[in-house]
Automatic annotation (TrEMBL):
PROSITE patterns: TAT. This is 1,4-beta-glucanase. Keywords: Carbohydrate metabolism, Glycosidase, Hydrolase, Polysaccharide degradation, Signal. The keyword Iron does not apply. Belongs to the glycosyl hydrolase 74 family. The keyword Coiled coil does not apply. One of its GO terms (biological process) is polysaccharide catabolic process.
Length: 731
């Protein structure tokens, strides 16, 4: 999933000393100017249903109904069999620790069902903080944390491999952790401390490192992702100290990278899936092999070899991804293809140790009525893509699940499949609009899944993704304040990058034309108060464009600051505003976007994370939210700004219905009033703030967007980077 990357400063703020142990959730210091909300707000997801890459799913081998899922940027979840939904386990991760919301690996202890371990770290790049290990004795209800001195990469290539974390089969106090660039780590105190141990393959600063750890009886195997296809890529230890290459292992391009492995204890066979790249993208070859551990004999059991030709003549290239064995039936297992775009990925099942296979896709009946967006604008859904996470219930041989780039499908009869995704929300939200009238209280714009019209907050939108055209990632969303039935959107689409709606976002029509630059760099878009003019921005270095005929024709606006985000006045249709962060200048137009002139100058420059907002129902009442320099307000259309003294950092700002007896809209902010980065509400024009989230509800980086509901006092919507739309209401 594509995500926004916070600045280096916010990353470094979350980097702690290696091997420090703290209890979670931690309590941040509350600002003196703010009042802690305590339990004064109830927080829930606005239901979309998955919408992100499920990178791992793990059934507990000895506890019926217990399972865990991990995601690349949205944390980890526990399956609650009683309520048939996933319970988020890492929402307590705060702003400074945003890099820990990606889960690299997870592990359970077969002998102790209440124990759970997570290896966290979204990026292994120089600008990202180090990883951490969370350990729980109560299935993730509470945690203890150990910060590592190495980086992990849950949202990088290879994120569907694994698991890279393992409880040693001989000793529940011993854990192994495979890293991408720092070799093998070992803990002998249940994850409290970690030490590097000797491993035969040398780590590199750019490679995949250890891709998987799996127990086969009392032997631990480790996959190595940096082989050239001729050298060893699977190692083992029988004593927990000495590692050796597994003899006779397969070589060649189709067996270059071990992706996943599973052990059949009945037949004493280890199954390994391979590809020529770690995935999820970039794989074009792969295979499946099994090792009879009692004799050391290897056999290839690949269901279908990549490289054939589809019915339309396309090359059928792919790798292999997930693998899971049936704990009840010897020789029964499932494996998945991955990156099979021409013929669509599938899950294969064998009941005879891989001698013959059946493609479960061929007779699959997919029911996506609970999450209609999975049709992707077509008549019916496809089986899925990016299938690297596969699970087989150890207590139910016909309960199979597989993760995709957007959901988790499950079956109970090997034929009928439906998303098993309730409670798991992973969208990266980019825009939020809460209309003042109409059926929907919320319209959202996301990475990868475009725009959604939320008729209800408790069910996935019945219309799915906004179509005509369907967008991948949404880049802009705007509503005409004086004509809220008119909405425009922009994003990355296959058939145009902009669209408009005359019914509040229910149905859409593409712009008749679009500027040439829109094809390669669609950016933020705004409509003026009465919907008669559109302004479209296209990123740094590109001029903005204007349309006065609903997108039929476009003209360049030379005086518009390149790359700025256009903002429309909510009352006066002749006025637009834009903030030029390169010069620290506020520019305004009073001729419906034809020309822009400078007003306030000398404001903060170079602040890449900023937002310009206009208070609803008030002309020229501007608020400038700046990450590094706090919050500023103008009541004269941007001619001058005054710093708001009640906060020192503001990341995103929005407005909602005024409190009873108040004349000004409620102001909502993600920011810092002193030392605590949190979600705040002000009912007195930002003179004072009340913190409305708590330490259990922080969701990592939440600086993209926030919007109050203009019809419901106290309700606020927050766009997260991996936990979808969170909305809170007073209780």
């Amino acid at each position: 999933m594509r995500t926004f990357r916070p600045s280096r400063r916010s990353v470094l703020a979350g980097t702690a000393a290696a091997a420090a142990v703290v209890s979670l959730p931690s309590v941040q210091g509350h600002a003196r100017a703010a009042t802690s909300a305590g339990n004064g707000y109830r927080w829930r997801n606005a239901v979309q249903g998955g919408t992100g890459f499920i990178t791992g799913v793990l059934f507990h081998p000895s506890c019926r109904g217990l399972a865990y899922a991990r995601t690349d940027i949205g944390g980890a979840y526990r399956w609650d069999d009683r309520t048939d939904r996933w319970i988020p386990l890492t929402d307590h991760i705060g702003w400074d620790d945003w890099n820990l919301l990606g889960v690299e690996a997870m592990a359970v202890d077969p002998a102790h069902p209440d124990r759970l371990y997570l290896a966290l770290g979204t990026y292994a790049q120089s600008w990202a903080g180090n990883g951490a290990v969370l350990r729980s004795e109560d299935r993730g209800a509470t945690w203890k944390r150990t910060d590592l001195s190495v980086k992990l990469g849950a949202n990088e290539d290879g994120r569907g491999c694994g698991e890279r974390l393992l409880v040693d089969p001989r000793d529940s106090d011993t854990l192994w952790l495979g890293t991408r660039h720092d070799g093998l780590l070992k803990s002998t105190d249940r994850g409290a401390t970690w030490q590097a141990v000797s491993f035969p393959a040398a780590p590199s600063a750019t490679g995949q490192g250890i891709t998987l750890l799996v127990a086969a009886g009392r032997t631990v195997h480790a996959g190595w992702g940096d082989s050239d296809g001729t050298s060893a890529n699977l190692y083992r230890t029988t004593d927990g100290t000495t590692w050796e290459a597994v003899p006779g292992q397969p070589t060649g391009t189709a067996a270059k990278v071990p992706i996943r492995a599973a052990y059949d204890r009945h037949t004493r066979e280890l199954y390994v899936t391979y590809a020529n790249a770690p995935g999820p993208n970039g794989q074009s070859d792969g295979s499946v092999h099994k090792l009879r551990t009692s004799s050391g004999k290897w056999s290839e059991v690949t269901p279908v070899k990549p490289g054939g030709t589809t019915a339309d003549g396309s090359a059928d290239t792919f790798g292999y991804g997930g693998v899971a064995v049936d704990a009840r039936r010897p020789g029964t297992l499932v494996v998945s293809t991955n990156n099979r775009w021409a013929d669509v990925d599938t899950v294969y099942r064998s009941t005879n140790g891989g001698r013959t296979w059946t493609s479960l896709k061929d007779k699959a009946v997919l029911d996506v009525s609970e999450t209609p967006y999975l049709k992707w604008g077509a008549d019916k859904p496809k089986f899925g893509w990016w299938i690297q996470a596969v699970g087989l219930d150890p207590f139910d041989s016909e309960h199979v699940v597989y993760g995709t780039g957007a959901t988790l499908y499950g079956t109970r009869d090997l034929k009928h499949w439906a998303p098993q995704i309730r409670g798991l929300e992973e969208a990266s939200i980019r825009q939020l609009v809460s209309p003042p009238t109409g059926e929907a209280h919320l319209i959202s714009g996301s990475g990868d899944i475009g725009v959604m019209y939320h008729e209800r907050l408790t069910a996935s939108p019945s219309r799915g993704m906004a179509s005509n055209p369907v967008f991948g990632t949404a880049t802009g969303l705007s509503l005409a304040a004086a004509k809220p039935s008119y909405v425009v959107r922009a994003g990355w689409g296959d058939n145009g990058n902009g669209a408009w709606s005359n019914d509040g976002g229910k149905t859409w029509a593409p712009f008749t034309a679009q500027p040439a630059v829109a094809k390669s760099a669609p950016g933020p878009i705004a409509t003026n108060a009465d919907g008669s003019v559109l302004l479209w921005s296209f990123g740094t270095g590109n001029p903005g464009h204007r349309s006065a005929d609903n997108g039929a024709t476009w003209s360049e606006v030379p005086s518009y600051p390149k790359g700025a985000v256009p903002v429309a006045d909510p009352v006066d249709p002749a006025r637009f505003y834009a903030f030029d962060t390169t010069t620290g200048t506020l520019l305004a137009s009073t001729d419906r976007g034809l020309t822009f002139t400078a007003r306030a100058t000398g404001l903060s420059s170079g602040d890449s994370e900023f937002q310009l907002a206009v208070a609803p129902g008030r002309s020229g009442d501007l608020w400038l939210s700046l990450k590094w320099n706090g919050l500023y307000r103008s009541t004269d259309g941007g001619a001058s700004f005054t710093k708001v003294s009640s906060c020192w950092a503001s990341y995103t700002l929005g407005f909602g219905k005024a409190a009873e007896g108040a004349s000004y809209p409620a102001v909502y902010m993600v920011g810092s009033t002193e030392s605590s980065t949190a979600v705040y509400r002000s009912d007195d024009e930002a003179k004072t703030w009340t913190r409305i989230n708590d330490d259990r509800h922080q969701w990592g980086w939440i600086g993209a967007c926030i919007a109050g509901d203009p019809r419901v006092y106290g309700r606020v919507y927050i766009g997260t980077n991996g936990r979808g739309v969170q909305y809170g209401e007073p209780v």
